[in-house]
What does this fold into?
Amino acid sequence: MYTVLHFESGGEEVYRKLISDDEIGRQTIILRDASKVSSKLKGSIIIVEGNDSIVEKAIELTGGGAHKLKEDLSERIYRKIKEEEEQADQGVGLLFD
It folds into this structure.
């Protein structure tokens, strides 16, 4: 499970808070500039991957500054970021072949 959170401001601060949490910090947490993944958004995007309790705890730690995106937009953004990561991983792999 994952959730995509949008922050109009303060996303970097929340990201630091999430990665410093003992439980959430062990999960996959991705921070991106929102305008790089959607022309409709400004600010920051944070993706948190984990089970339901992890996602809920992460949302609580945001202090109400996050907006959960609609499911279709969340899915598009998640897929786009994962594809970019895979391409980057493949590029690094070519360096070591």
Q: What stands out?
A: Residues 4 and 47 are 5 Å apart (CA to CA). The first helix runs from residue 11 to 20. The domain at 2-96 is CATH 3.30.70 (Alpha-Beta Plaits).
